[in-house]
Amino acid sequence: MAQASKRKRTAVDRGGTTTLKGKYAVPALDKTFDVIELLASTPGGATMNEIATRLGRSMGELFRIVIAMESRGLLQKSPETDRYTVAYKFLELALRATPAQDLTRTAAPAMQLLVNQIKQSCHLVVPNGGEGLVVYRQENPDMRGFMVRVGASVNLARSCSGRVILAFSDDQQRDRMLQLAERLLRTRINRTELDQQLARVRARGYEQCASPITHGVTDISYPIFGFYGNLMAALTVPFLELLDGSQKVGLDAARKYLERAAQSVSTALGHHESLKKSSRKRA
User: Fold this and answer.
1) Is the same domain home to 270 and 201?
2) Which of 33, 72, 83, 153 has the lowest tally of Cβ within 10 angstroms?
3) Residue 61, Cβ neighbours under 10 Å: how many?
4) What's the confidence (pLDDT) of residue 222?
5) For residues 257 and 3, what is the distance between their CA atoms, to the nearest angstrom?
């Protein structure tokens, strides 16, 4: 009886949650989750020494755990600051393991409805290091149209989708993405000019501009938000204007349909403005 009682005993860990003691405790796994939870709540990342200090553990206890997670692509280390951050692979695994929260599955019905309404294609872009990445698309059901392939990379500073991603990301995330983008492009980005562009995007809630790549296409893009108001993706329509008068939905009407679609996807992901405000207060 005493042994069974001991197994059921609980204790409060450093994060304020309860963990089972006895044969169910797995110290290495506990430390792994401690590191993940710490970095998940530290957008700017932390060095190995900072991780150990904040968790109240020694470097020796955590070193192999952190290196193992980095080698599996779960953590990424900045070569400039030696700071570790949670890698995009966590989101990839989470999306595969939890279909209800799968961004593409959640967005698919709204995107299908959108293309049927406006007779234009649309695509979903997520932040991916120093670029945007097209992870899903719906094609124009009509005979003619313009589309972007899944897997295509998107320039964050120059593209419509990229500026939406940058404009609605928090300051730390935006700065990190721009640092990675500059390293990738091997050139400096005019931050003053870009900041002015992003301020305009935030003010109107979307971006609309002539395609920097294709003549005759106007890109329109709206943000997709997650549960706490965090930027998840940009939903974009590359609007191709036809010259033969057969187009039934114009640019302005298409933008309104796109806005409703983006709001629908955000709502399906659990986004609500009140949750966004409460998360800001906690921060």
Assistant:
1) yes
2) 72
3) 14
4) 97
5) 63
Residues 185 and 259 in one domain: yes
In a domain, 5, yes or no: no
Residue ranges, the chain, pLDDT below 70: 1-24, 91-92, 94-101, 143-145, 244-246, 273-283
Does this model's pTM top 0.70? My answer is no
138 and 229 housed in the same domain: yes
* pLDDT at res. 257: 96
Structure tokens at 268: 């399906």
Q: Tell me: do 56 and 115 sit in the same domain.
A: no
**Residue 145 and residue 218: Cα distance in Å, rounded?**
13
Task: Tally Cβ neighbours within 10 Å of residue 229.
Answer: 21
Residue type, 231: L
Report the chain's mean pLDDT, rounded to a whole number: 83
Residue 50: give its domain's CATH number.
1.10.10.10
Distance, in Å, from the CA atom of 251 to the CA atom of 224, rounded to the nearest integer, reads 20
pLDDT of residue 81: 92
Containing domain of residue 203, as a range?
99-282
Residue position matching structure tokens 């430390």: 31
